[in-house]
Amino acid sequence: MAALNVSKLPEGEAWLYEVKWDGYRALAAKDGSAVSLLSRKGNNLTRDYPEVVEAVQGIDAKTALLDGEIVALDEQGRPSFQMLQHRASLGKNRRVVYYAFDLLNLNGRDLRGLPLIDRKKLLAEIVAGSDVLFSPNLDGPTEILIEQVAKMKLEGLIAKRRDSTYEAGKRSGAWQKFKVNNEQELVIGGYRPDGKNFDALLVGYYQSQQLMFAGKVRAGFTPALRASVWKRIQTVQPLAKCPFVNLPNAKTGRWNEGVTAEDMAELRWLKPKEWTRDGSLRHSKFVALRDDKEPKEVVRE
Question: Which domain holds residue 103?
Fold first, then answer.
């Protein structure tokens, strides 16, 4: 079940609120001592997160299907998507947890038709005493919740109707997401080469099924991260034709410097596949790649 992006949180007793965790969305299926983790694209994540598998093994259920988020925590206990992506290099210092926010099946009983508030009550009961973290309901006026989330430097909030059933694969509006920070997920469609690496990434978002150029990203790369991104670029199918429908454009504009007709000859184009997450493109900064979503899901937020 997907959440609808909104610019204002709904209010009233019909809604409950949760933290929007910055990680990988994953279903956790438990059958006895066997646990499997599946991404929203259906990829098997079980071997990648043994600590999550062990946590789910400890819940009080013979069989269960949980919905939640795999999250890496930094030294302050805040979610860090960048740490999650580079978890292999963290060794014993990594801390990866699973925040569960829904329960779809329990001991063979399909719970998707129950109201959310009832599903969460059962979820809280079975994860109590385990290492699975329960994503709690947040109380208080929305303006106070937004203020606190911003203060804690968390990604945002999710509003959910208390009586909502679980609509798998749908974005009905019964769940709504509100971003507090200024991050935007973007697709990489090209780059400016620089010897045996790249100087800048060209990124964009989809609008009416067309890839719109948003700007160039140069900042935020450590030498190791730049090398890692360049290695990934080598695996992406090159394109002879620019995938951005609004290039070339003026040299300057709303989205930072543009791309002139003269620039086009030196740029290299890629089949839109990879993701980047950055801030306002007036002062853009690269954070991390992600591949748990389809590129055409990337729209301007």
Answer: 4-179
Q: Are residues 168 and 198 in the same domain?
A: no
CATH of the domain at 75: 3.30.470.30
Q: Examine the residue annotation and report whether 20 is marked as an active-site residue of this protein.
A: yes
Question: Which token pair is 43?
Answer: 């990829």
Say if residue 159 is in the same domain as residue 240: no
| Count of domains for the chain | 2
Q: Catalytic residue among 8, 20, 231, 241, which?
A: 20
Task: Read off the pTM.
Answer: 0.69
Q: Which residue has the tokens 């963290």?
A: 90
What is the mean predicted confidence (pLDDT) over 230-244? Answer: 92
Listed as own residue / partner, the contacts of 192-200 with beta carbons closer than 8 Å and 24 or more positions apart are 192/216, 192/266, 192/267, 192/268, 193/266, 193/268, 197/226, 197/227, 197/230, 198/226, 198/229, 198/230, 198/233
pLDDT tens-digit readout, 18-61? 999 989 999 999 999 999 999 988 999 999 999 999 999 999 99
In the DSSP assignment, the letter for residue 177 is: E
Return the exposure string of 183-216: e unless at least 16 CB atoms fall within 10 Å of the residue's CB, then b.
Answer: bbbbbbbbbbeeeeebebbbbbbbeeeebbbbbb
Instruction: Indicate if 148 and 272 belong to the same structural domain.
Output: no
246 and 189 together in one domain: yes
